[in-house]
Amino acid sequence: MEYKFRCECPITSALDILGDKWILVIIKLMLTQDKKTFKDFTESDEAIATNILSSKLKYLEEFGIITKTQLPGNKKTNLYLLTEKGLALTPIIVELSIWSDENVRALNKIMKESPEIEIMKSDKAAFVKMLQENYRSKTRLNK
Hints:
It is a single chain. The protein starts with 9 loop residues before the first helix and ends with a helix. The protein is mainly α. It has one domain (about 20-140): Winged helix-like DNA-binding domain superfamily/Winged helix DNA-binding domain (Arc Repressor Mutant, subunit A, Orthogonal Bundle), CATH 1.10.10.10. The chain contains eight helices and two strands; from the N terminus they run ααααββαααα. The protein is globular, with a radius of gyration of 16 Å. The relative contact order is 0.12. α6 (about 90-105) crosses α8 (about 125-140) and α7 (about 115-120) crosses α8 (about 125-140). A hairpin with a 2-residue loop joins β1 and β2 (about 75-80). The chain has a two-stranded antiparallel sheet with strand order 1-2.
């Protein structure tokens, strides 16, 4: 797949791939809520429309951020898993969570309280490592 980037800026180039409002939501669902199947995603609180979900999963697969395989013993169900490239986005998810807690909470009255936020704030690196290790152990992504 060849993709045309807007410019040579690393931040703009990353946003050309990740800047859609659903991309990081899907990655967050996979990383923190163990979502792996199309049905898992459609049942999430984020209420992603099925046509959008289909296109975003395909997009993430094309960029090597996720892989799609068959669910063992069920050829009709696809299993979506983060690749190492996808797992490398964990620090960004953690930073966005902290930023949102500190800067968006006052605007979003329905934002849930999360005890994990304080853990993230106290030791981001350890929290990132824990999320990644938990994900790898659940998906046998160890390399």
